[in-house]
Write a structure and sequence with these properties.
With 160 residues, the chain is of the alpha+beta class. Helix content is 39%, strand content 14%. It has helices spanning 8-21, 42-62, 83-91, 125-134, 151-159, and strands at 5-7, 33-36, 95-101, 115-122. Strands 1-2-4-3 form a four-stranded mixed sheet. Strand 1 (5-7), helix 1 and strand 2 form a beta-alpha-beta unit. Helix 1 runs parallel beside helix 2.
């Protein structure tokens, strides 16, 4: 089976749905490659920022979590507080990644989380939830947990 290459822009609708539904992220698999580089098209970057703010705002208000601050309009260009990094951290709870290309990056991105990564391992739901419990996203403990679904058993056996 051929490895797939994804830009974050290709995945963002799946990410929003997965976050809202609190389900396992199944759009990528082991050995796929994901680009976490700045989004060049301004309208796509704005859409990512707006939808990320909306999804996180809905979640934090429903869970009564205080301290969430929306990403500013130009945050996709930031090297610290960035919705791209939030989604990279979110996906890192489902997968192990390895940086595969930082040679071709512009010097301004070296030493940041920007890069092209390969999925080296897909995690099972218990490990995913353990990572969410132990990780702060945006400096907040989101008390986020993936809820099991009927398809998890099927996916478990396909990956074992």
């Amino acid at each position: 089976m051929a490895n797939k290459y994804f830009n974050l822009e290709d995945l963002h609708e799946d990410l929003f749905e997965c976050f809202r539904e609190r389900s396992m992220f199944l759009a990528i698999s082991q050995m796929d490659v994901v680009s976490f580089l700045p989004i060049e098209e301004k309208s796509v970057a704005k859409e990512l920022i707006d939808k990320t703010n909306q999804v996180l705002g809905e979640y934090t208000s429903s869970q009564e979590i205080e301290g969430f601050q929306k990403f500013p309009e130009n945050s996709c260009e930031e090297t610290v507080e960035n919705p791209i990094f939030f989604w990279k951290d979110y996906l890192s709870c489902f997968f192990d990644f390895e940086l595969i290309d930082d040679e071709g990056l512009y010097e301004e991105f070296l030493g940041t989380q920007f890069g092209i990564y390969r999925v080296t391992r897909v995690l099972f739901i218990d490990e995913v939830n353990r990572r969410f419990r132990n990780r702060k996203l945006l400096g907040l403990n989101l008390a986020y947990q993936v809820l099991p679904s009927s398809s998890d058993k099927k996916n478990f056996w396909e990956r074992s």
